[in-house]
Specification:
mainly alpha
């Protein structure tokens, strides 16, 4: 899938998609299908990987006391 996006636009799409997934109270298969389509592009694979790493880093800093 070729969307002719800039790198910053790719990152923003992935961030918004991750935020939508986290905000849902129950599983929404739309986000899974959309992610699957985006991950068919190698650039989006790397973008997803780094975005997930960044998100997990923020979870490590949360104090759940």
């Amino acid at each position: 899938m070729n969307l002719n996006l800039k790198k910053t636009q790719e990152r923003e799409i992935v961030r918004v998609l991750l935020q939508c997934c986290v905000a849902e109270k129950s599983y929404n298969p739309f986000y899974g299908l959309l992610s699957e389509k985006l991950l068919s592009d190698i650039n989006f694979r790397y973008t997803f990987k780094y975005a997930l790493w960044d998100y997990l880093k923020t979870l490590e800093r949360i104090d759940v006391a």
